[in-house]
UniProtKB/TrEMBL annotation:
Name used for this protein in its record: Subtilisin-like protease SBT2.4
CDD domains, per database record: PA_subtilisin_like, Peptidases_S8_3
Domain Inhibitor I9, first and last residues per copy: 64-133
UniProtKB keywords: Glycoprotein, Hydrolase, Protease, Serine protease, Signal
Signal peptide (from-to): 1-29
Start and end residues of each Peptidase S8/S53 domain: 159-646
Record: active site: 168, 243, 608
Domain Subtilisin-like protease fibronectin type-III: 725-819
Species the sequence originates in: Nelumbo nucifera
InterPro entries: Peptidase_S8/S53_dom, Peptidase_S8/S53_dom_sf, Peptidase_S8_Asp-AS, Peptidase_S8_His-AS, Peptidase_S8_subtilisin-rel, Peptidases_S8_3, S8pro/Inhibitor_I9, S8pro/Inhibitor_I9_sf
Length: 826
C-alpha cells in the first residue's frame, strides 16, 4: 500500500500531505463480513438500571463476584443466541461487549446477519465500516509551562494521578517519551485503575514501566478481515506504524525529550500532561483496521478505569442506514461518557468542504486542527541572486548553501539509450535512478516535477531521495506543475539536500531562469547547463507567522444527522487545537511511511494530532478539579476558548484557494482555540448528563422513540422540547422560523459568589433576548437562562454571533450562536 504521508494526493487543483490512513475495502454482497450487534439488557456497568458507581467517586470492582457473574451471564447469552439463530459453521464470534454496552461482534454472511436483525432481544445490527487513522513547541504556544503547569506543581507534577487511554496503533515502549525516570518517581498511584499488560513480539512485560501503566491489543477483527503480515502486524501492543506513539506522546509524553532527526537537534518535546499515565489499546494494524477491534478497545478502556479517552481513529464516513448519533461507534462513546470518561475525538481530515466532520455527537468532543506560528522555511538561491521559498526539513547543499551547483531538469538528463517507459514517473518525477545519465546529474541539483504519478498516489518523495542518494546528486528541487496547480507541502525530513516548491508562480521563476541559462542544439538537446543554484538550510524554525489559522484539511461543520446531509442543532467541531506541523514520538518501524523509517520523531499534521492536545489538557483540568464530570470539563474548554489570533484579530481559515485566507466561523473552529489556563477556572459550566443526551435524541425531528430505545436501551420518557435545548455551551439552530425559545442552565464552579451581566452580539437576521439579563450566583449554585431568538430577516445561509456572560470577578463565559434564519413567519 502506498504511504499517504510520503506522497502528494491530488484534489482537483489542490494537493495535501495527510497523516497515515488505513483504508478498509468493502466485501462482496454475500461474502462474510463483520457485524456489530447490540442486545437488550444492561451491561455490567449499568446493571439493574443504576448509575455506575464510579459516577459517585467509586470504581466498579471487576474482581467482585457480582461483576463476574453478570459478565458471564452476558457472554453466555450471546453464545446461546448465536447458536439458536445462525446455522452451524456459518459464523465466528469475535468479541462479547459487556461492560458499557451489551452486545457482540460476529463474522458471518449478510443472509445470516439478516436473521440476527429479526431475532427478539437484538436491538441493532450494523456492518463493520472499518476504522482508519484520522511536540517541541505546542506547550509554549498554548502557554502551558508558565500558566498551567505551574498551578499543578510544575512539569514534574502536571497530570499526576490521571490515566489517559489511547486507542490507536499501539506504542513504542522503548521511546524516551515513555520512559520511567527513577529519579522522579510517581507519587500518586491511580488505585481505581485496573489495567493489565499484555505481552507479545517486541513488547515484554517490562514495557509497562509505570509511565505506560497498561497495554492491550485487539486483533480478532483484523485477523478475520485480512491476512496479517507477521513482519509488521505484531500481535502485541507494539506500534509498527508510529501514529499511536505520536498521539500518546502529544497527550502525555515525558517532559523535555530531545528531538533529533538526521543528526539535527530540533528542540525538546513534551506532552500536554507530562506526568499523566498512558494506557495503551492497540486496535489498528498496519494492514487493516476494523471497527469491531476499536469498540472492543473502548469497552475495555472504560472497564480498566481511564479518566480520558483519546480517539484519533474511527469511521471516516457517516453510517449508511441510521442516524449519525445512533451508529455503534457513537453509542459506545455515549456509554463511555455515561461511565464518567471524558471522550475526545478527531473531527476528520476532509476539509475545507462543509459538513465533513466525522465527530457528530454532543457527548464526544470533536477537535479541529490549526497551525501555530512556527514554520520551517527553506530557500533555493539562484545564480542571479534571486531566492525562491519552499519547504523541506533539509540541510543545505554542500558548502552550507553558499557554493552554487549546476541545475539540471530531470527530462534533460535521461539516458540516450532509453530502455525504460517514457512515462512521467521516469522522465519527470525522479522515481527511477536507472533512467538518468549519471554523468549528467552527479554532483548537480536536479529539478523533479509533480506529475501523474503523484496525482495518482503511486509516486513518492522517498523515491526521489533514493534517486538522489544512488546517483550522488548535490540535491533535488521538487516543483509544482501547471497542469495540476499549487499544492500544500508538509516539511518532511530529507536525508539529502532538497526543497519542495509548491507554488506555480515560484516554479515558473525557476524554470524561466533554467531555460534562459540552458543552451540547446537544433534538436532541443542540451549542450550546456548554464544555470546554478544552492539549497539553503531548511531545518531552522521561524516563529513569525500569524496563528492560529484553521488548517485546510480540518473537517468543517455544520453537523449532520444522517447520510443525506440533513442538519442538526449541534455545533461541530467542538474546539480548535494545534494539529499542523506537530513534532512528537514515532516508531522507527514506520510500516506505512518509508520516508520516516528509522526515525524516533516525526513532524505530522492532521486532526489526529490536535485531538491528543485536548485529551492532555482535559487531564490537567481533571487533576485540578477531580470532582468535575466530563460535561463540566467539556464546557470549561468551550466557554473559555480564544476567538482571536496572535495579532489580536479574528481567527482565519485556509480555504479552497490554498494561497488565500478567509474569515472563519464556528463551523471551522467551534468556539475557538483551546485556552488551557482559562479552562482551569471557567467560572460557570453547562452541566449535562446521560439523561439529557437521551432527551436530546428523543427530541430529534421525525425520530421514532423505538429507534432510540433500540439503540440505547432507554425509553423516551423525558424528551426535550427541541434538540437545541440540550444544555450545551453553544446554541445552534439549523432552521429558525419566526421565533424560538432556547433553555440553558449554568452552574457556578468558582469559590465565590459572582454577579454576571448578559450581553449579545446577535447573528445577522435575528434578535436575541436573554432572561434574566443580570444574575447573581453562589458557589455550586445554578441559574436557568431563557434565550429568545426571533427572525427579523430571512437569509440563505447561517449567520453567527455570541452571548457573553461577564462576571464581576473577571470570569468571562462565551457561548457561540449559529443560526439559519429561514422565515419571519410560520
Amino acid at each position: 500500500m502506498a504511504s499517504t504521508a510520503t506522497i502528494l494526493v491530488s484534489w482537483r487543483h489542490v494537493v495535501v500531505l495527510f497523516l497515515p490512513m488505513i483504508l478498509i475495502l468493502g466485501l462482496a454482497a454475500e461474502e462474510p463480513a463483520i457485524y456489530l450487534v447490540l442486545m437488550e439488557g444492561d451491561p455490567v456497568a449499568f446493571h439493574q438500571g443504576s448509575s455506575p458507581d464510579h459516577l459517585h467517586g467509586k470504581k466498579l470492582d471487576p474482581d467482585s463476584e457480582a461483576f463476574k457473574a453478570h459478565a458471564k451471564h452476558l457472554v453466555d447469552s450471546h453464545d446461546q443466541l448465536l447458536q439458536a439463530t445462525l446455522e452451524v459453521g456459518s459464523y465466528r464470534k469475535l468479541y462479547s461487549f459487556k461492560h458499557i454496552v451489551n452486545g457482540f461482534a460476529v463474522h458471518t454472511s449478510p443472509s445470516q446477519a439478516k436473521k440476527l436483525k429479526m431475532t427478539p432481544g437484538v436491538k441493532l445490527v450494523e456492518k463493520d465500516r472499518g476504522a482508519q487513522l484520522m511536540t517541541t513547541y505546542t506547550p509554549e504556544f498554548l502557554s502551558l509551562p508558565e500558566r498551567v503547569w505551574t498551578q499543578e506543581g510544575g512539569e514534574r507534577n502536571a497530570g499526576e494521578g490521571i490515566v489517559i487511554g489511547v486507542v490507536d496503533t499501539g506504542i513504542d515502549p522503548t521511546h524516551p517519551s515513555f520512559a520511567y525516570d527513577p529519579l522522579n518517581p510517581f507519587t500518586t498511584k491511580p488505585s481505581r485503575f485496573k489495567g493489565a499488560c499484555e505481552t507479545g513480539p517486541h513488547f515484554p512485560e517490562s514495557a509497562c514501566n509505570g509511565k505506560i501503566i497498561s497495554a492491550r491489543y485487539f486483533s480478532a477483527g483484523a485477523q478475520t478481515t485480512a491476512p496479517l503480515n507477521a513482519s509488521i502486524d505484531f500481535l502485541s501492543p507494539t506500534d509498527a506504524v508510529g501514529h499511536g506513539s505520536h498521539v500518546a506522546s502529544i497527550a502525555a509524553g515525558n517532559f523535555g525529550v530531545p528531538v533529533v532527526v538526521n543528526g539535527f537537534f530540533y528542540g525538546r518535546a513534551s506532552g500536554m500532561a507530562p506526568r499523566a499515565r498512558i494506557a495503551v489499546y492497540k486496535a489498528i494494524f498496519p494492514s487493516v483496521g476494523t471497527l469491531a477491534d476499536v469498540v472492543c478497545a473502548i469497552d475495555q478502556a472504560v472497564l480498566d478505569g481511564v479518566d480520558v479517552l483519546v480517539l484519533s481513529v474511527g469511521p471516516d464516513d457517516p453510517p449508511e442506514d441510521t442516524l449519525t448519533f445512533l451508529n455503534v461507534f457513537d453509542i459506545f462513546m455515549l456509554f463511555a461518557r455515561r461511565a464518567g470518561v471524558f471522550v475526545v475525538q478527531a473531527a476528520g481530515n476532509k476539509g475545507p468542504s462543509p459538513s465533513t466532520v466525522v465527530s457528530y455527537s454532543p457527548w464526544a468532543m470533536g477537535v479541529a486542527a490549526c497551525t501555530t506560528d512556527r514554520s520551517f522555511p527553506g530557500t533555493l538561491v539562484l545564480g542571479d541572486g534571486r531566492r525562491i521559498g519552499g519547504v523541506g526539513l533539509s540541510g543545505p547543499s554542500f558548502g552550507g548553501g553558499i557554493f552554487l551547483y549546476k541545475l539540471v531538469l530531470a527530462k534533460d538528463a535521461m539516458k540516450a539509450n532509453r530502455t525504460f517507459p517514457m512515462t512521467p514517473e521516469y522522465i519527470e518525477e525522479c522515481q527511477h535512478p536507472e533512467a538518468f545519465d549519471r554523468t549528467v546529474v552527479q554532483g548537480r541539483i536536479v529539478i523533479c516535477t509533480f506529475s501523474a504519478g503523484f496525482a495518482n498516489a503511486t509516486s513518492t518523495i522517498t523515491a526521489i531521495i533514493d534517486t538522489a542518494r544512488v546517483l550522488g546528486l548535490a540535491g533535488f528541487v521538487f516543483v509544482a506543475n501547471p497542469d495540476y496547480g499549487d499544492f500544500v507541502a508538509q516539511p518532511l525530513p530529507f536525508s539529502v539536500p532538497g526543497i519542495v516548491i509548491p507554488k506555480i508562480a515560484d516554479t515558473q521563476i525557476l524554470l524561466d531562469y533554467y531555460q534562459r541559462t540552458t543552451k540547446r542544439d537544433q534538436c532541443g538537446l542540451v549542450t550546456e547547463f548554464g544555470g546554478n543554484a544552492a539549497i539553503r538550510e531548511g531545518r531552522i524554525a521561524s516563529y513569525q507567522g500569524r496563528a492560529p489559522i484553521v488548517s485546510l484539511f480540518s473537517s468543517r461543520g455544520p453537523d449532520i444527522v444522517d447520510k443525506s446531509g440533513n442538519l442538526t442543532d449541534v455545533l461541530k467541531p467542538d474546539i480548535l487545537a494545534p494539529g499542523d506541523l506537530v513534532w512528537a514520538a514515532w516508531s522507527p518501524v514506520s510500516a506505512l511511511d518509508p520516508i520516516l523509517t528509522g526515525y524516533n520523531f516525526a513532524l505530522l499534521s492532521g486532526t489526529s494530532m490536535s485531538t491528543p492536545h485536548v485529551g492532555g489538557i482535559a487531564a490537567l483540568i481533571k487533576q485540578s478539579n477531580p470532582s468535575w464530570t466530563p460535561d463540566m470539563i467539556a464546557s470549561a474548554i468551550s466557554t473559555t476558548a480564544s476567538k482571536n489570533d496572535n495579532q489580536g484579530k479574528p481567527i482565519l481559515a485556509q480555504g479552497p484557494d490554498i494561497n488565500g485566507l478567509y474569515p472563519s466561523t464556528p463551523f471551522d473552529f467551534g468556539p475557538g482555540l483551546i485556552n488551557p489556563a482559562r479552562a482551569l477556572d471557567p467560572g460557570l459550566v453547562f452541566p449535562s448528563g446521560f439523561e439529557d443526551y437521551i432527551g436530546f435524541l428523543c427530541s430529534l425531528p421525525n425520530i421514532d422513540p423505538a429507534t432510540v430505545k433500540a439503540a440505547t436501551g432507554v425509553s423516551c420518557n423525558h424528551s426535550l422540547a427541541k434538540p437545541s435545548d440540550l444544555n450545551l455551551p453553544s446554541i445552534t439552530i439549523s432552521a429558525l422560523v419566526r421565533y424560538q425559545s432556547v433553555q440553558r442552565s449554568v452552574k457556578n464552579v468558582a469559590s465565590k459568589t459572582e454577579t454576571y451581566l448578559c450581553s449579545v452580539r446577535p447573528p445577522k437576521g435575528v434578535l436575541v433576548h436573554i432572561n434574566p439579563p443580570l444574575f447573581t450566583i453562589a458557589p455550586q449554585g445554578t441559574q436557568d437562562l431563557e434565550i429568545g431568538i426571533s427572525v427579523v430577516q430571512a437569509l440563505k445561509t447561517f449567520s453567527f454571533g455570541e452571548i457573553v456572560l461577564t462576571g464581576n470577578l473577571d470570569h468571562i463565559v462565551r457561548i457561540p450562536l449559529s443560526v439559519f434564519p429561514v422565515s419571519t413567519s410560520l
